[in-house]
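Entry details:
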Amino acid sequence: MGKTSRFDWISSSLRASSALIFLFIYLPMIVVVVYSFNGNAVNTFPIQTWSTKWYGVMLQDSALLASLKNSVLVAVLGTIIGLFLGIPAAFVVDRFRFPGKIIFERIVLLPMILPGIITGVAMMSVFIMMRLELSLTTIFIGHGTFLIAVVMTQVYARLKRLDQAIEEASMDLGATRMKTFFYVTLPNIKTAVIGATLLSFTLSFDEIAVSYFLTGRDLTLPVQIWAMLRRGITPEVNAISTLIFLFSVAMIVIVTILNREVEK
């Protein structure tokens, strides 16, 4: 009985600690969501009137909508870079043995490990040295550097669980390596590729540190919101933040579901 009581107490403590951690992480976001429906222009508590008018105001803000368009464009192009270079990198790491393989793997993963500020400052210095004007092009190139690592880790983890015997059987039956890849390998890793795509898009869409140092005249949405916050929190910022939060959660849920399907 003593051991059972002790384990029950430990289990209850862990549940309580987990609840407090989640509350600490997500309570500020819940506050933002609630205030996005505040009918007043000033955030006050308790809320006197409830309204969705700030979502309409947000849709009429040309600067905010332009930055949203820029963020989508950058996220799409950055994700494409990550896919085209990350998938081959995953195959190289998984299928080949060569001198310096570990160093190669660490170098590819380095942009994801380093703080975004360091990556942003380093890439800004390189672009200035190359006399390239800071613009959306420099931003999506910067995003692509760490998205390569994101895609590589996702696809590499799936390749490690893939039975290579099915590929060998395909080639034994006369299929070329290219046909084997498209008709055998790719269908078996497609959930990992889709998950990596969604995760890369979400990370690029929400990224601010690298974007801040590489931005020119055209701002991405996170940088635009940061600029707006310097003048104080406005209700439309709460509205757009709520939409970004819901979008990010939806993407993460989809990626989690896809990963569970792979494990099954």
